[in-house]
Inverse folding.
């Protein structure tokens, strides 16, 4: 299978370091500001995907495929995590009829 | 040079749609903007000639996980439930903390950022090379991940099952 692009000159790995740091920070800000539990899970997915972007950039830079295998395993673990997280969320919705994260304060002292 | 321009425009659109994920009020709009963000990130993967990861990202993330989120949102029927008003001091503090996180990451890496480390053409992201690597060097983690999947499946069924079921 030939390469889609014959050249990748002009892309720097520094640009991807900055881009994935910005995406990770956006995910962290969303995780802290939003109250809806499903949006919080989505922000976790965004942070995972920014890390994937950085891993693929360094894998292409060093010309070694191991990091892309790690990205594959991160996708697998994220799928399992999303499944269990969403079923916990359905369980929480059955308790309070709401998925606002502030309502679940039974353990507060 | 044209490739650099494409990557910068794509990066700007990625950041914009990621911001819309956390800024939009309705959760379904957040899910759709997150799908758009994943498509943009797959565009970055194609620019770096990582074709396998780009396709896996679209199929698994945008196709399976995000549809799962969308189905759960529809099942929960949250249209009546309005999200509580966000506490303004808390969100202000969160934005400050996130900005400080970004600042710390970039300050820790600032000596390495020189914009001279160009990515040269590499063929490691093609399906043939990654498949050889996955089934030779990483075959044991690949098999262990199937155990992880079946435990997650059993756990999800066990958690979401309704209690007080009486079998007559």
């Amino acid at each position: 299978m030939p390469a889609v692009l014959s050249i990748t000159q002009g892309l720097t790995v520094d640009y991807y370091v900055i881009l994935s740091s910005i995406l990770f920070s956006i995910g962290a800000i969303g995780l802290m500001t939003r109250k809806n539990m499903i949006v919080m899970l989505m922000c976790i997915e965004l942070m995972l995907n920014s890390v994937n972007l950085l891993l693929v950039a360094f894998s292409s830079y060093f010309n070694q495929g191991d990091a892309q295998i790690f990205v594959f395993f991160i996708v697998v673990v994220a799928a399992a995590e999303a499944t269990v997280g969403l079923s916990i969320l359905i369980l929480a919705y059955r308790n309070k009829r709401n998925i606002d994260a502030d309502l679940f304060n039974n353990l507060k002292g | 040079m044209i490739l650099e321009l494409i990557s910068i425009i794509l990066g700007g659109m990625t950041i914009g749609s990621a911001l819309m994920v956390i800024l939009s009020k309705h959760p379904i709009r957040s899910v759709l903007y997150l799908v758009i963000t994943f498509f943009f990130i797959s565009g970055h993967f194609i620019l770096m000639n990582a074709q396998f990861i780009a396709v896996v990202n679209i199929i698994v993330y945008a196709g399976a996980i995000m549809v799962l989120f969308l189905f759960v949102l529809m099942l929960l029927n949250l249209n009546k439930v309005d999200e509580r008003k966000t506490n303004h001091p808390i969100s202000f503090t969160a934005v400050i903390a996130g900005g400080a996180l970004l600042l710390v990451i970039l300050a820790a890496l600032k000596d390495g950022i020189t914009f001279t480390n160009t990515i040269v053409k590499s063929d490691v992201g093609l399906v043939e090379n990654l498949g050889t690597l996955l089934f030779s060097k990483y075959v044991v983690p690949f098999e262990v991940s199937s155990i992880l999947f079946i435990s997650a499946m059993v756990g999800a069924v066990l958690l979401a099952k309704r209690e007080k079921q009486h079998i007559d």
